[in-house]
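Entry for nickel (II) ion complex. Fields follow.
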Amino acid sequence: MALRNIRTEGDPILSKISKPILEMNDKTKTLIEDMLETMYHANGVGLAAVQVGVLKRLVVIDVSEDGDNPIILINPEIIDKEGTQTGEEGCLSVPGKSGTVTRANHVKVKAFNKNMELFELEGDELLARAIQHEVDHLDGILYTSKVEGEIKTSSD
Ligand code: NI
């Protein structure tokens, strides 16, 4: 496994649309492992492949306290949304910044796992927010385009 370089705001790749993954292979397996390592190393709760420069519809998420519950979503598609939540959001591609974004409070997502088996996952609150944020990355959308009010700079 290896850390990958995280692309940051201003890099044109972040506004591109990622392409579906048609089959699992060793290259994509390594990419998944590297993305997890990169996300945990950066203390993030989610990372999309485009953020490490690969235009594939693949995201990894872990919203657990201990960072021991990785979720891998391949070709994710949000098939249901309910309610709203308004809260602070950040992104590893926009370091040191945060902003207020309103998202659905509950989502149901359909995706393939790393064995290319279709599954469904439902999530609330932080998990729902992470899923929506990461799926946006696959369509070239950064949360900064959805911020209400000003984008804040972290005080540290
Ligand atoms: Ni992000």
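NOTE: The chain has one domain: 12-153.
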